[in-house]
Amino acid sequence: MNMARPISIPQKPSRRPGMTMSALMGLATLLAACSTANVWTGPSRPLVTDQPYTGAHRTMDYQLAFSYVFQAGGGGEADVIDFEGRLISRQGLETFILRLILLDASGEILATRVLYAPRGRQGAARTTFQRRIEVPEGAVKLGFRHVARERRERGNRR
To answer: Which of 57, 62, 100, 149 could lock 89 by a disulfide, CB 3.0 to 4.6 Å apart?
Structure first.
């Protein structure tokens, strides 16, 4: 007589208690990262409000010499900065955008304003610019952020 062997069905592996704890730790880390997403971690400098300010900022992509005058708003008008800059960007950039970041005392980003963005992928150039920038209430520091992309060589199409 031919006896068939019983078929063994694999069972789901039982969850280890450590798996749940590591999943919770991962979730907590993700939530903590999301809660600080609006906090500036780059270099910043105090926003000078009592006199004209002159400064410089340099990265591997650009050099910026700038000055600004803080104008206190009155009669319900917002505070503003009259900002002037002289920008020298690295050669070979196809795209370059420079932004001013306005921060509160804890480093939270209150506003982001474009200082320089050439039109039509003209690339970055040596340039000067002037901007009048509204300052949000509570801003006490400023920083700079930029986007830079290399110019790609375009091959001959035949």
So the answer is: 62
